[in-house]
Amino acid sequence: MLAQSLPSTGNTAIPTLPAARDKDAKLKAAAQSLEASFLSEMLSFAGLDKSRQGFGGGIGEEQFSSFLRQAEATAMAKHGGIGLSEKFFEALKERSNDQK
Hints:
Blueprint: H1 2-5, E1 8-9, E2 12-13, H2 17-45, H3 58-78, H4 84-98
């Protein structure tokens, strides 16, 4: 692998590329999760989780509608959302680089 061919400098090794990609992947996942949470709240305020009068599933529908709303918000975020996840990712990455 590429990481094995990288030289080390004294007693500190150069960070491996897979580790950096793994860190970026975790930051992107966190950013998407934040955007999905935001979208879920916005969908709630838009009335997405209100029971429909025609099919009114009663208390069960009311209790589980938040799960549907969260799943829809997560799908929206994974497919590009409204662009917040990219901004969140950039901010998280900058903050993690500053803490080194």
